[in-house]
Specification:
80 residues, single chain, alpha+beta, four-stranded mixed sheet, Translation Initiation Factor IF3
Amino acid sequence: MNSVENLIDLRKQPKGCKEHPLIRLKNTIRRMKKGESIKVITDTTTIPLRTIEIIARKNELKVEIIGKNNNVYEIVLRKE
């Protein structure tokens, strides 16, 4: 597995919508190059796992769930 270049924690929601976690995720994905990976942490009570999977599929990324603790998932998204 390639090293993970970025970490996006979707559990943290700053005030306002300018830097909403999903916007940060989409912007990071847009800048990814072939062979790069990002680690995403999400609480499914806030942002469902299915949402992450849909975004990944639209951007032709591979999804690997590497950890789960109750409603919190750790996911690696990889551009191959």
